[in-house]
Design a protein that fits this description.
By secondary structure, the chain is mostly helical. It has 29 helices and five strands. The two termini are about 60 Å apart. Pfam families: DUF6596, Sigma70_r2, Sigma70_r4_2.
Length: about 675
């Protein structure tokens, strides 16, 4: 077995057996920190020995045996042992080593109780929520410090400190390794459920970062919930939480669009919901109801999720039933967040006025001051009431509060849509429209300067306060004749292109205008431009380009391919990985009849550029596209999520590096 194989085996075994091993050790030594230390010693021993001796038949028992021997050695060395520890050390050292048999028996008898005890210890209310979460994922989830840090977007030292502080607190309090009884059981169980649901929620809707979901955390929370349900089958709220997580997780595949953007519940493709998880959720909800009596908070929330799961379409959702469930939940769990969810249900069942009336009462709630969902919900209800300007402010406030990038993009898009709707309601001037046109995120600085010259002249001659609706193609033609009638063809055509772009943008925004429905540049004919032969770069300058150490692999490959093939930049940028013939040193352009051929220099670089990719655009942009502007399917790499490199970006990079245009790379 190779060292890499051994590492994978150890990692897999650790995730499956760590909770049982640590739980058994805590029962022996009475200290969570020591127990994990001995378990980690066993893990290191496995990493050292398994590559030579292969994985044992019962790896969990092997790790337990090694960890127990470390515990015995520790007890022997500890000079401050009390009599009970001394007797335990004597018994463990003289008794025959039956670790494997002990573990097998424990799996059937005590180990389940030990894991349950460990769960109650790691989620002790004396620990902060962050410490409980980190310690639970470390001890019961088998996750490494770096995995926990990556999941919650914090640094590894921060997670390590939380775990260390939690262990010290438990040791100082001498928390007994037992399942509490009586009134304390309910409080401690609530803490355990809170931690598991917190982990699930962080995975279901990430509070920060570039991803809308973190499936690994959802799966880990589900695993812990199912484990707890098996260890405490008589606790109704445990089954309620499991039901809630199963039903919510069933929607995961439908919650994001092709570019990773969030998809609202009423817009989801319900055919993509996981029916197996839905059935498991229904079964868990039935178990939660078996003890009788009133339902707890998690079971009530699961009942809400079940109403959504039963509806074949969004229109069939029983919002009246959901409203009644939220009213019951508000009595059991009277929190502002529950009231906000109830406001949404009221709006769906009885109209947006009813929902907004309740949502407005929550604006002054201190607990919701930094919660982005409150302005998001109010914005949605205001849109349904036709109050678009108020809705725009709410969506912009919600976008400023959230740290999740996909969600922020969706909220800003909704704010922009509301701004457009508000403009249509109140009218818009030429100055307003020109300002909005030039402030778009998709325009680079050079384009803004160029377009700005055109729009400034139109505003000066036609007036800033001129209603956009009244601007005509004839007026624009008069301005052009006066300003650029004697200008060079290239100048005339540049300003004409700016007006055409403005017309297309305004029409797409639905802005009210007369001739905008056609084209404000309709009276402006394109002037012919003399086209001189583009002179290629000097050979010494081209050869010096390949020696530059600062060139990225993508730029080096693109520029060398353009030079060796003498093909146009558009054809080269249109190449796809699946259409390359590396052996023949050629590529078919967009699966068409034309081929681009290259020589040995490009042939040497291409395998490194496409390493690990089998399809999609050959040359990719630096970043993934935002959820608000998804590219055409053919311009999106299915393996990396990045879009095809645009001609404008490629030209810009080359000009920044050399001062020349891409056409000058062609061999003369």
């Amino acid at each position: 077995m190779t060292s890499q194989d051994a590492h994978r085996a150890v990692d897999a075994v650790w995730k499956m057996e760590s909770a049982r091993i640590i739980a058994g050790l805590v029962r022996m030594v009475g200290d969570v920190g020591l127990a994990e230390e001995f378990a980690q010693d066993a893990l290191l021993a496995a990493l050292e020995q398994w590559p030579q001796a292969d994985v044992p038949d019962n790896p969990g028992a092997w790790l337990m045996a090694v960890a127990k021997r470390r515990a015995v050695d520790h007890l022997r060395r500890d000079e401050r042992l009390d009599q009970r520890h001394g007797q335990l050390a004597h018994e463990l050292s003289t008794r025959p080593d039956t670790a494997e048999a002990d573990l097998d028996a424990a799996l059937d008898e005590e180990v389940g109780d030990d894991v349950l005890r460990l769960m109650f210890v790691s989620c002790h209310p004396a620990l902060s929520t962050e410490s409980r979460t980190a310690l639970t994922l470390r001890l019961l989830g088998g996750l490494r410090t770096e995995e926990i840090a990556r999941a919650f977007l914090v640094s590894e030292p921060t997670v390590a400190q939380r775990v260390v502080r939690a262990k010290r607190t438990l040791a100082a309090l001498q928390v007994p390794f037992e399942v509490p009884a009586g009134p304390e059981l309910a409080a401690r169980l609530s803490s355990v459920l809170e931690v598991i649901y917190l982990v699930f929620n962080e995975g279901y809707t990430a509070t920060a970062g570039d991803g809308w979901m973190r499936q690994d955390l959802c799966q880990e929370a589900l695993r812990l919930g199912r484990l707890l349900a098996g260890l405490a089958p008589g606790e109704a709220e445990v089954h309620g939480l499991v039901a809630l997580m199963e039903l919510q997780a069933s929607r995961s595949a439908a919650r994001t669009g092709p570019a990773g953007q969030p998809v609202a519940l009423h817009e989801q493709n319900r055919g993509r919901w996981d029916q197996l998880l839905i059935r498991r959720g229904f079964a868990a909800l039935l178990r939660a109801r078996q003890p009788g009596g009133s339902l707890g908070p998690y079971a009530l929330q699961a009942a809400v999720a079940a109403c959504h799961a039963r509806a074949r379409t969004a229109e069939e959702t029983d919002w009246t039933q959901i409203t009644a469930l939220y009213e019951a939940l508000a009595r059991v769990l009277p929190t502002p967040v529950v009231q906000l969810n109830r406001a949404v249900a009221l709006a769906m069942a009885y109209g947006p006025e009813a929902g907004l009336a309740l949502a407005d009462t929550l604006v002054a709630e201190p607990a919701l001051q930094g919660y982005h969902r409150l302005p998001s919900v109010r914005g949605d209800l205001l849109v349904r009431l036709g109050r678009h300007e108020e809705a725009r402010r709410e969506f912009e406030r919600a976008a400023a509060l959230t740290l999740n990038m996909p969600e922020r993009a969706v909220l800003l898009a909704r704010a922009a849509a509301c701004a457009g709707a508000a403009t249509r309601e109140t009218g818009v001037t030429l100055a307003d429209a020109a300002g909005a046109f030039l402030s778009r995120d998709d325009l680079d600085a050079a384009t803004v300067r160029s377009y700005g010259q055109t729009m400034s002249r139109l505003r000066r001659d036609l007036g800033d306060d001129a209603p956009l609706r009244g601007v005509s193609a004839g007026q624009v033609a008069e301005v052009f004749t006066a300003a650029w009638g004697s200008a060079a063809s290239a100048t005339w055509n540049r300003h004409r292109g700016a007006v055409r772009s403005f017309s297309a943008w305004a029409a797409a925004q639905g802005l009210p205008a007369g001739d905008l429905a056609r084209d404000l540049a309709a009276g402006l004919g394109r002037r012919p431009e003399p086209r001189g032969r583009t002179r290629p770069m000097d050979r010494p300058r081209v050869e010096a380009l390949w020696e530059r150490p600062d060139l990225a692999l993508r730029e080096r490959t693109l520029w060398l391919l353009l030079h060796e093939s003498a093909a146009g930049a558009g054809s080269v940028l249109a190449l796809n990985v699946e259409d390359l013939d590396l052996a023949g040193m050629r590529g078919r352009v967009a699966a068409g009849p034309r081929w681009v051929h290259w020589r040995s220099g490009t042939a040497e670089l291409l395998p490194h550029l496409i390493a690990g990719r089998r399809r999609g655009p050959l040359f990719l942009s630096d970043r993934r596209p935002g959820p608000g502007r998804p590219p055409a399917p053919g311009d999106l790499c299915p393996e990396t999520g990045r879009r095809r490199l645009s001609y404008e970006r490629a030209e810009y990079l080359f000009k920044q590096a050399t001062g020349h245009t891409l056409n000058q790379l062609r061999a003369g």
